[in-house]
Amino acid sequence: MSRGPRLVVLGRQGAGKGTQAAMLAEHYGVSHLSTGDLFRAAARAGTPFGLEAQRYMDDGNLVPDDIVVGVVEERLLGDGDIERGFVLDGFPRTEPQARELERVLEAHPLDGVIELLVPTEVVLERMEGRRVCEQCGATYHVHSPPRENWTCDVCGGRVVQRDDDTEEAITRRLELYERETRPLTDFYRGRGLLVEVDGVGDPHDVFERVVKAVDRLDDWSQDSW
Ligand code: AP5
Ligand code: MG
Ligand code: ZN
Question: Which CATH number covers residue 113?
Answer without folding.
Answer: 3.40.50.300
